[in-house]
Amino acid sequence: MKLFGSSGIRALFNKELLSTAFRVGLAVGEKYPNVVIGRDTRTSGDAMKHALTSGLLAAGASCQDAGIIPTPTLAYATREFDAGVMITASHNPPEYNGIKLFNPDGSSFGGYQQEQIEAMVRAESYGVTEQDKTVQSGNYNGAVANHIDAIASFFPSPLNIKVVVDAGGGAASEITLRLLEKLGCEVVALNCEPTGEFPRPSEPVAANLTELCSLVKKSGAAVGIAHDGDADRMMAVDEKGRYITGDVMLATLARAVGARDMVTTLDASMAIDEMGLKIRRTKIGDTFVSEELKKGGDFGGETSGAWIFPALSLCPDGIFAAAQIAALATEHKLSELADAVPVYPLFRGNISSKGLEMARLKADLAALKPLSVSDMDGVKLVFSDGWLLVRPSGTEPKIRITAEAKTEARARELYDSCLDIIKKHINIGVEAN
C-alpha cells in the first residue's frame, strides 16, 4: 500500500503509525539537515512528535519544535528551514493522525520528493549518524506571531465587523481569533478550546456547521468562519446564516484577490470557466495545485476549502483566507456576493471500496457517449451540458463520484447512470453527500 496519499500520510494512531513516524524522521533527516516540526491538537500528537523528532535527530538533523500550530503556520515558518514536518490528520476524526512534509516555499513535498522518502522508508535505506554528530532538539518560538504579522500586512485598513470563528477545537483555536482582533474585528469564539477531542466533526462541511450558522444569524455577525483540525481549510457562512459552498467560495475569493491566472482541480464547477480567467486544472489534492502554481498564477484552491495565496505561501492557508473573507464582508454583504455566482446542479457521493479497476470502468462509462474523456485523475467525462468524474479517494478507502450539469435532471441522470455502472463492478453500499 502506498505510504503517501493526496495530502501526506494519514492512518489510525497505533504502533505501526508511530513506527512509520520514526522511520520518516530518519529518512527526512538524512536529506534535510535543518527541520522545523509542528502538530495539531490531537491527543496523540505529542507521541507522534517525539517519534518523528527521534528519527530526525538520529539521522543527524537539527530539529526545532514550533508546538501546537496550524499547518499553514508551520508551512510559513519553514521558509527559515530546509523542510517542515506537520503532525496532523487534517479533517480526519481524532483517532487518526498523520504527517505532512513541506518545502521552504510552503508547498507540500511533490511527487518525486514523496517517492524518495517512501522508498527510503520501505527499504530502510537510511543510517544513524555517529554519536558525536547528534544534536539536541530546540524550540522555535514566534511562529504564530510571525504568521499573524505577515497576513496582517496585506490588510492595512481596519475591519470593523463582527465575526464568529468556529475552530472546531483544532489548531486555529488561538491564531484566527488573534489575527482578526488585530485587524479590528469583534470576534465571537465558538469551539475554540483545543482539548484534542473535536467538539464537532472536523471537516468544515455544511452538515457539521449548523451551530455556526445559527450563531452567526443570532449574533448579527457579518460572517462566520470555520476551520478543520489543522486549519489548512476555511469555509464561511454569510450574514444570513447560510453556508457558502466550496465552488462559490472559490469564485468569490478569486474575485476578491483580483485573480487573473487561477489553478483549481478537476472537480471544481464549470461555472469557474465562465469567469473570464485563465484556468488551469489539476488532479484532486492541494499538493497538485501548489505544484502547478510554481509555474505561475495568482490564486489557487480546491472546493474542499483549501485556498492558496502565492503572494504569501504555496500552502493552503485557512488563516489568510479567514482574513480575506472578513475583509470582503467589511465592504459587501457576503450573501449578495455569493448569490452573484452562477450555481449549477451538482451531485457528490462516495462508495466505500478499497479499489476499482479504472480501465474497465472507463470502457463501460464510454456508453454514456461523452464528448471527451480524461484519465488525469480517475475518469472525467465531459458532455455538452455537464460533466462526470469518478476517482479513488487519496485519503480514504472510497470511490468519489461528482456530476454537474445545466439542469438538475441532467446532473441526476449522469450521477445515477454512473452509479449503476459502478455497481456492476462492486457490490458495496453508497453514501451520498
Sum up the structure in keywords.
six-stranded antiparallel sheet; 13 helices; alpha/beta; 3 domains; Alpha-D-Glucose-1,6-Bisphosphate, Chain A, domain 3; TATA-Binding Protein; about 425 residues; globular; about 35% helix
Largest sheet: 6 strands, mixed
CATH topology of the largest domain: Alpha-D-Glucose-1,6-Bisphosphate, Chain A, domain 3
- Given the structure, what is the number of helices? 13
Major β-sheet strand ordering: 1-5-4-2-3-6
Name of the CATH first level of the largest domain: Alpha Beta
The rounded distance between the terminal residues' Cα atoms is 27 Å
Kindly give the count of domains.
Answer: 3
Dominant shape:
globular
Indicate the CATH architecture of the largest domain.
3-Layer(aba) Sandwich
Low-confidence stretches: none
CATH evolutionary superfamily of the largest domain: Alpha-D-Glucose-1,6-Bisphosphate, subunit A, domain 3
Mean pLDDT: 93
Compute the CA-based radius of gyration: 21 Å
Structural class: alpha/beta
- Beta-strand level of the residues, as a percent range? 15-25%
Number of strands: 20
Helix content: 25-40%
